[in-house]
Structures are given as C-alpha cells and as structure tokens.
Amino acid sequence: MTITATAAPSASDAATDLANRRLSIAFLNWAHAIDHFVILIYPTVVIALQAVYGDSYSTLIYLATASFVAFGLFSLPAGWLGDHWRNMMTLFYFGVGASLIAASLSPTLSVLAFALFALGLFAAIYHPVGTAMIVEAATQRGRTLAFNGVCGNLGVSLAAGITAALTALFSWRGAFAVPGVICIITGFAYLWFAPKENRHAAARSKLPDVPMSTALAVAIFALFLLVAVSAGLVFNTISVALPKIVDERISGISLIEVGGLTTAVFLCGAVAQLTVGRLVERFPPHILFAILAIMQFSGVVWSAYASGTTLLFALAFTMAAIYGQITVNDLIIARYSADAWRARVYAVRYFVTFMISGVAVSMIAFLHARGGFGLVLGVTAVVALGFLVGAIAIAILANGVEKTRAEQLQPAE
Q1: Which residues have C-beta within 8 Å of that of residue 201, sequence separation ≥ 6?
Q2: How many angstroms separate the CA atoms of 361 and 238, rounded?
Q3: Which helix (H) or strand (E) covers residue 308, if one does?
Q4: Confidence at residue 19, expressed as pLDDT on a 0 to 100 scale
Q5: For the CA atoms of the chain, what is the radius of gyration?
Q6: Are 120 and 39 in contact, with CB atoms under 8 Å apart?
Q7: Model confidence over 216-266: pLDDT tens digits?
Q8: Is 384:296 a contact under the CB 8 Å cutoff?
Q9: Are 297 and 388 in contact (CB under 8 A)?
Q10: Which pTM does this prediction carry?
Q11: In sequence order, which residues have a C-beta less than 8 Å from that of residue 255 and are 6 or more positions away?
C-alpha cells in the first residue's frame, strides 16, 4: 500500500501566492483610479462645451445624467456576474476604453450622450466586482482598502486637472481619446500579466466575520440603504459640481487654474483615506464612521457659506470626510457579509449610491438655475444630515453586536 503525504505549502509557493495577490491588487487599484477618472471627465469638459455649442451649463450638464444612471443601474448585474465570472475586469478595461474613444468621435451632442451612457455601463463593473476582489486578495484589509480608496480618489482628483490640460492641448475630444487609448492598452496588459486564477470565482466562505441575528441584519441593511442614498447624493453632487463651484466662487481664474484647484481639493481626500486606513487598526470602524459623518455634514454647511480662499479649505475638509467614510463603509460591509456573496452586497450598495448620481446631476442643474451653488449646497447639507442619522444608528447597532461577540469569545472562568 502506498501512502501519499500531503505536503505543506513551501516557502516558494507562499511567495508566489503573495506576488500574485500584489499583482492582482495593483491592477485593481489602477482600475479604481481609471473608474473615477473617466466618469468625471465630462463635468470639466462641459465648461469647454459651453463655448463650442453656446448652451448654458445647466443645459449641457444634463447630458451626464445617462452616464451616471448607467453607472449605478448596471452595478447589480455586474455584481451578480462578478460572483460567477471574474473576467468582468477584462470587460471593464476594454469597454471603458471603447466608450471613451466613441465619445471623442461623437459628431453631435446626442451621440455624445449615448457614448457617455456606454461609459457608465462599463464603468459600473468596477465597484461591485473590484471591491469584492480587493477584500478577497487583501492580507491587511484596512490598509489595502484604504490605499485602494486613495487610488480611486487620485482618479477623481486628477480628472479635472488632466482633463483641463488635455482639452487645452487637443480640444475636448482629446480629453476623451487619450484616456480611452490608455484603457485599451491596460486591458491587453491585464490579459497578459494578471494571475489567471484570480479571474475566476473560487470556493469561498458563506459565513461573515461577525455573525448576527436575521432581524438585526435586516435593520442594519435598511440603514445602509439610507446611508447609500444620502452618500450617493452628497458624493456625486460635490464631485460633479466642484469644478464649476471653484469657477464661479473664485473669480478671475482660467480653466487650467480651475482644474488645478479642483485637483488640490480632491487630493485632500487621499490624505484622509490613508489616515483612516491606519485609524481602523486602532479604533472600531463603526465609531469612525459616525465621526466622519459629523465631519461631512459640518463641511457641507461650511462650504455653503464660504467663498474665496476659505471656500477651498471648506471643500477640502468636506472632501476628506466624504472619502474617509467611503473606506470605512466598505470595511464595515466586509466585516458583516460573507465572502461568497460579498460582491452582490457591494452591488446593491453601489447600485443605490450611483443610481442616485443621476438624480444628483439633475438636482445640480435644477437648483443651480434657481439659486446658484448656495441653494445646491444648502440642499446637499440637508441630505448630509440624513447620512449622519443613518451612520449614528449603524454605529449604535454595530457596537452592540461587537460587544456581544466579545463577551462570547471570552473564556469561561
């Protein structure tokens, strides 16, 4: 009789696995930057389109509605597919690239709106699929998710500045075409270099890190829906309107300067996310979530009344809170959801968050035409108050769950 022993993983196997994880995370981080960059090209391009087509900002910004609606709408099917087929990230790179090139070639505003819709459709893949893959590949979730969030924030931060520069160099069409070519090239690199085993769903745990009763899970899920709606409105209203807020409230600056200042404000979110990534290793995520919600509400109210240099500080403070809470939000979901269906949980969250972005674009256009950005930011502050209520309620419930779990884990005397 032959006895076959199962060998323990060798040091070389462990090193290979770690290298594959890092490579996968690198591609996912880059995808996160691309995702946020491309969806915010148009809010800067629209300033140049005003001169080209002679239409008002309120009229032209409506064209982005289809893109942002698709960004949320297709999160649900993307999340379901992501739990079964990991080649979704390949589709992301090529689909986004093709849509950007189509936008650059658009002969009319109607065709441009359709290309923006396609861009939103393919861009919707990243958040439910990529976030779940990041959580699965990470060995240190807090730091990995925080850095991934920074990459997304860099995409947001650089969108206005790089788009303004590309528009100045190559016209608004070049602002779409150059990122489109980069996405296509990245798609081929992903096919060639990304670890093959990370493109397919594997057998994953069906138990969350922290179990809870069904009733409590339903209550927290309902609160997360409230948070998702309010977070989506606040995030997208500030992100989409920021270049124009800077343009209107700081007089006498060029489009390049508008893009540069907008980028500087967004970069404050990157610093916040790195800080939050370390803080979650020292403090409970649900407590940080509540604190960041208070900061976000305070920042929006401050921004509504600020102007000039003070406005930049107010917007920077607001952006730091907005991007800090996104990282903590993802960590809380990861902690209370099972690996096997985490992509679908993220899909629901991002579906709600990004579907509401279409409402945010329409809200900006409607309110700006009637009361300028004072009215836009005032209404956004009311929405941020709803987020604050939901975040505090989640913190209270999660604190009870964690306390019960800690008591259960204590050894009997």
Answers
A1: 83, 84, 85, 86
A2: 10
A3: helix 308-336
A4: 74
A5: 22
A6: yes
A7: 777 877 888 888 888 888 988 888 888 888 888 887 777 778 878 888 887
A8: yes
A9: yes
A10: 0.67
A11: 47, 48, 164, 167, 168, 247
Give the number of residues written for the chain: 413
Return d(Cα 153, Cα 266) in angstroms, integer: 7
Measure the CA–CA gap between 327 and 148, rounded to whole angstroms.
Answer: 9
Which option is the CATH number for 19-409: 3.40.50.1000, 1.20.1250.20, 1.25.40.10, 1.20.140.10?
1.20.1250.20
**CB contact at 8 A, 320 and 149:** no
Domain ranges of the chain: 19-409
Q: How far apart are CA 256 and CA 244, in angstroms?
A: 12
80: tokens are 């379901």
AA letter at 361: V
Pick the residue with more confidence: 239 or 199? 239
Tens of pLDDT along 83-132? 666 678 888 999 999 999 999 998 888 899 899 999 999 998 888 888 77
Crossing angle (nearest 10°) for helices 75-82 and 342-409: 70
pLDDT bracket for residue 213 (50, 70, 90): low
Maximum mean pLDDT: which of 53-62, 188-197, 263-272: 263-272
| Nearest CA-CA partner of 85 in 197, 196, 201 | 201
* CB burial string 30-57: b at 16+ within 10 A, e below: bbbbbbbbbbbbbbbbbbbbeeeeebeb
Count other C-beta atoms under 10 Å from residue 324's C-beta.
Answer: 29
Give CA–CA dist 148/273, Å, rounded.
9
